[in-house]
Design a protein that fits this description.
Layout lengths: L2 H5 L2 E5 L2 E4 H18 L5 H19 L2 H27 L12 H25 L5 H19 L4 H19 L3 H29 L2 H4 L10
Antiparallel strand pairs: 1-2
């Protein structure tokens, strides 16, 4: 039996819709990825790669061309992000990945990429007939790529981009027959909100670090 058929073999039925192995295990990996990213753990990247391979199989089986393409790009972006975080950990004095809010330039670039990328890729999907719902499907693809790049740069805004992806992904997954994926997106919503709060707090702590703002009492006052 071909590997794709094995991965897409139903495990159980949820709300009358079969849930394949690829969708089940892939989404378990996706939840683990978000949890590890919340803790700024570098293992979030290899776990994301594994989950994306499995969700690629699920997307192909569901006929979601944009979502399938998304998984391929996520795998490539995860390899890049893994390298970025490894370098960041080595260079940081704390030995941890340090997070920050993005600059206005980074925010505008993210927003522009989301708008232009969604229209361009959605038009391509519609032209080729590769998705039954091209523009939301395209947004999932483009938004995921933008979030991965922002995550690799360790900026808080990556959580906000994921939040928007989740809001589109929930109805799209359910309409595409991936009911389990749709349910998992609800879990993501909660974890993403926690991530926004946590990374925002850590960003403020970094800016207001005593090592940055406290006077050096070891030196005499020049006055």
């Amino acid at each position: 039996m071909p590997l794709l058929d094995v991965l897409n073999t139903p495990v159980f039925t949820l709300l009358g819709t079969p849930v394949p192995w690829s969708d089940l295990i892939g989404n378990v990996c996706a939840i683990a990825t978000v949890f590890l990213a919340l803790r700024r753990n570098i293992w979030s990247w290899p776990v994301q790669i594994l989950g994306s391979v499995l969700l690629l199989s699920a997307s192909i089986g569901a006929g979601l061309g944009g979502n399938a393409s998304r998984q391929v790009v996520i795998i490539a972006a995860a390899v890049w992000g893994w390298t970025r975080w490894k370098q960041a950990k080595e260079q940081a004095a704390s030995g941890e990945v340090e997070v920050r809010w993005g600059t206005w330039t980074e925010r505008l670039l993210l927003l522009g990429f989301l708008l232009v990328g969604t229209v361009a890729f959605g038009s391509l999907l519609a032209w080729g007939g590769w998705s039954w719902n091209p523009y939301p499907d395209a947004y999932i693809f483009v938004g995921s790529l933008a979030a991965m790049v922002a995550q690799g740069r360790a900026i808080v805004e990556f959580w906000l981009v994921w939040l928007l992806v989740d809001l589109v992904g929930i109805p799209l997954a359910i309409m595409g027959g991936l009911v389990f994926s749709g349910a998992v997106y609800f879990v993501f919503l909660v974890m993403v909100i926690v991530g926004i709060i946590d990374w925002s707090r850590r960003s403020r702590q970094r800016i207001a670090s005593p090592t940055d703002l406290s006077p050096d009492i070891s030196r005499p006052d020049p006055a």
